[in-house]
């Protein structure tokens, strides 16, 4: 892998590397990255992997490699989004209320916790610490918002009285001096695709957890609009424009537009809009025009009062964001998908969303054309080859070149010719796995069960789960397609198998549940999506992974259904290109929870017979680790009993 990555960095060819769990893929790309003569960006999907790279893998590699580099260790830095760093202006001056007035500390218990976070931030300044969320004392999302700002609320380094000490700015400066920068997919998308300069100039990007890239880029390019958000922006702006010719009427107009939008939401109802309803189009135009007028009404000159200056900057930033989002939604381009999501009034009510129909075009035009990109993950070969993933990230199967890494490197002329003709050559290699899946794991498909229905788990599925869990004597990770299914299974098994500990997602924070799962040899942990991809429990803790059904996207998922429809219109197979690909990726990730070391043993049990009876089943099975397959429950029960003994 290291040789293939180094070759790609020299030739400028893109590279897809499937590297299974346990191969040491982070070293496979970090070694050539640290040796490359220009800056390399490493982008991860999760903060957990980012933390692992910066706190463990890179320091260990540096310690080992420095003697071989004549003491010249390459520099590295981590770069996160602004909201991941404490804001010293907010820490020292307070948080704006709905009227834009800076409030020092909230009352009650929360106020004491805010004071602890403020004290920690000041210690970070004194000690030269990163001031980032990962380094902070234990806190909730709500608490962190009391000491942080997002990009629209930031005053900017030149206007903030604490700009020189700013943790986010210090991190950017450190990154500018470093040869390797570790960041995340979202920040990479904002920098490369949206064109907002967030990362110092670089030559190559390594995208780890690359199976997550399209989802994270989509997420970064998704905008939301809610009535309470617009009303809050209007209230915050009121005092800052009250001296204008309209006496604050521009803020009132935005509040009125919010009411029009609320009425349109009630008239339209939730769901995707293939065509924009007239009442919604009119309300969005009102919000857009009122926000534009309000932006113009803000005074051009900065005031002498630092508090009002901060409040004005942040209020204007909110309104600019609302204007941009409303303008995008009102335009309703074919390249966007627009839908209304339901949310109860206590959490702010319904909200409008807009997301790109696809991101492969943007990735191709704005990232792959300009940079050399190495994609790596344990799950890049879906259906047995790279084509599905390659297409989703902007590479064409017809552009793939020979698999061999032993070919002579391209000459500069050949690289230049490649750039001129618009083709983007790429290679795909599977570096294998240290695991013997056929001996370490069984893939069991419960063919005798009825296909899953809309009503959730039936009696047959519950009976199957109980029999398998009982044979395993606990030690089970249950991956369910819905919270309702996970809760139903947990409740049933607590009655049937009272001697086992049944943990369910939502009963505690995930780290706490994972700890309890590891400590109790007879525990089961049942949950949904975050467990499919985010849990690493090697050893005897997990000897049975249960998957209740093939994780197809919901039929009413606005974005997935729109993408499926677009693929059908283009002459493709929307179900296979969108729904089956989504399911294959999640199945591979879920099944990957079982075998984490060379000594792990166990069973992946899929309770959905369609995995072996449906025509698309072969595509899904080819995406899974090559475990020994069976549909015989008695064989699996005996194997689990032997393991538990």
Automatic annotation (TrEMBL):
Keyword Hydrolase set for record: yes
Keyword ATP-binding applies: yes
Entries under InterPro entries matching the protein: ATP-dep_Helicase_C, DinG/Rad3-like, Helic_SF1/SF2_ATP-bd_DinG/Rad3, P-loop_NTPase
GO BP term, pick one: nucleobase-containing compound metabolic process
Enzyme superclass (EC): isomerase
Keywords: ATP-binding, Helicase, Hydrolase, Nucleotide-binding
Region (Disordered): 233-252
Pfam families: Helicase_C_2
E.C. designation(s): 5.6.2.3
Domain of life: Bacteria
Helicase ATP-binding domain ranges (all copies): 1-275
Catalytic activity: ATP + H2O = ADP + phosphate + H(+)
An MF annotation (GO) of this entry: 5'-3' DNA helicase activity
Gene3D superfamilies: P-loop containing nucleotide triphosphate hydrolases (3.40.50.300)
Stated family: Belongs to the helicase family. DinG subfamily.
Name under which the protein is recorded: ATP-dependent helicase DinG
Organism of this sequence: Nocardioides mesophilus
């Amino acid at each position: 892998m290291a040789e293939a990555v180094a070759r790609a960095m020299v030739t400028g060819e893109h590279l897809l590397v499937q590297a299974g769990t346990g191969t040491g893929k982070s070293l496979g790309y970090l070694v050539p990255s640290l040796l490359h003569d220009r800056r390399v960006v490493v982008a991860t999907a999760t903060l957990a992997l980012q933390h692992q790279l910066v706190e463990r893998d890179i320091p260990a590699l540096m310690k080992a490699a420095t003697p071989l580099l004549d003491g010249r260790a390459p520099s590295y830095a981590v770069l996160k989004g602004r909201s991941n760093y404490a804001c010293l202006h907010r820490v020292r001056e307070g948080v704006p209320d709905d009227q834009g007035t800076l409030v020092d500390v909230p009352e009650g218990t929360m106020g004491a916790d805010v004071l602890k976070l403020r004290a920690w931030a000041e210690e970070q300044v004194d000690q030269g610490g990163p001031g980032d969320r990962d380094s902070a004392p234990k806190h909730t999302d709500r608490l962190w918002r009391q000491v942080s700002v997002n990009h629209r609320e930031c005053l900017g380094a030149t206007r903030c009285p604490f700009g020189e000490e700013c943790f986010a700015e210090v991190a950017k400066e450190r990154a500018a001096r470093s040869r390797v920068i570790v960041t995340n997919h979202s920040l990479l998308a904002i920098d490369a695709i949206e064109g907002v300069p967030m990362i110092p100039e670089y030559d190559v990007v390594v995208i780890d957890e690359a199976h997550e890239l399209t989802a994270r880029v989509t997420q970064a390019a998704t905008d939301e609009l809610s009535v309470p958000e617009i009303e809050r922006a209007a209230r915050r702006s009121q005092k800052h424009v009250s001296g204008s010719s309209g006496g604050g009427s521009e803020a009132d107009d935005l509040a009125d537009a919010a009411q029009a939008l609320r009425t349109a939401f009630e008239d339209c109802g939730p769901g995707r809009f293939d065509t924009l309803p007239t009442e919604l189009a009119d309300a969005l135009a009102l919000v857009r025009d009122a926000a534009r007028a309000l932006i113009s009404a803000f005074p051009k000159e900065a005031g002498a009062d630092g508090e009002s200056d901060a409040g004005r900057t942040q209020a204007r930033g909110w309104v600019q964001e609302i204007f941009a989002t409303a303008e995008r939604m009102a335009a309703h381009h074919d390249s966007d998908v627009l839908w209304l999501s339901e949310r109860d009034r206590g959490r702010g009510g319904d909200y409008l969303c807009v997301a790109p129909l696809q991101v492969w075009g943007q990735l191709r035009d704005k990232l792959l054309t300009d940079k050399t990109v190495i994609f790596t993950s344990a799950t890049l070969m879906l259906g047995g080859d790279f084509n599905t993933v390659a297409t989703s990230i902007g590479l064409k199967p017809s552009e793939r070149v020979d698999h061999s890494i032993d070919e002579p490197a391209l000459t500069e002329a050949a690289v230049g010719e490649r750039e001129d003709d618009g083709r983007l050559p790429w290679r795909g290699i599977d570096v294998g796995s240290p695991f013997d899946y056929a001996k370490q794991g069984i893939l069991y498909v419960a063919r005798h069960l009825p296909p899953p229905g809309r009503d959730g788990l039936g009696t047959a599925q519950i009976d199957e789960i109980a029999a398998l869990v009982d044979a395993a004597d606990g030690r089970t990770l249950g991956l369910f397609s819905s919270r309702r299914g996970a809760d139903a299974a947990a409740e049933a098994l607590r009655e049937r198998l009272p001697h086992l500990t049944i943990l369910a997602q939502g009963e505690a924070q995930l780290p706490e549940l994972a700890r309890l799962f590891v400590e109790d040899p007879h525990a089961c942990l049942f949950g949904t999506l975050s467990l499919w991809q985010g849990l690493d429990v090697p050893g005897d803790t997990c000897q049975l992974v249960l998957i209740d059904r093939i994780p197809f996207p919901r039929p009413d998922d606005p974005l997935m259904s729109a993408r499926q429809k677009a693929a059908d219109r283009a002459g493709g197979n929307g179900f296979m290109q969108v729904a089956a690909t989504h399911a294959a990726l999640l199945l591979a990730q879920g099944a990957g929870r079982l075998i984490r070391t060379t000594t792990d043993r166990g069973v992946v049990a899929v309770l959905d017979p369609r995995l072996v009876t449906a025509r698309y089943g072969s595509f899904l099975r080819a995406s899974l680790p090559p475990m020994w397959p069976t549909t015989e429950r008695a064989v699996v029960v005996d194997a689990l009993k032997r393991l538990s003994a």
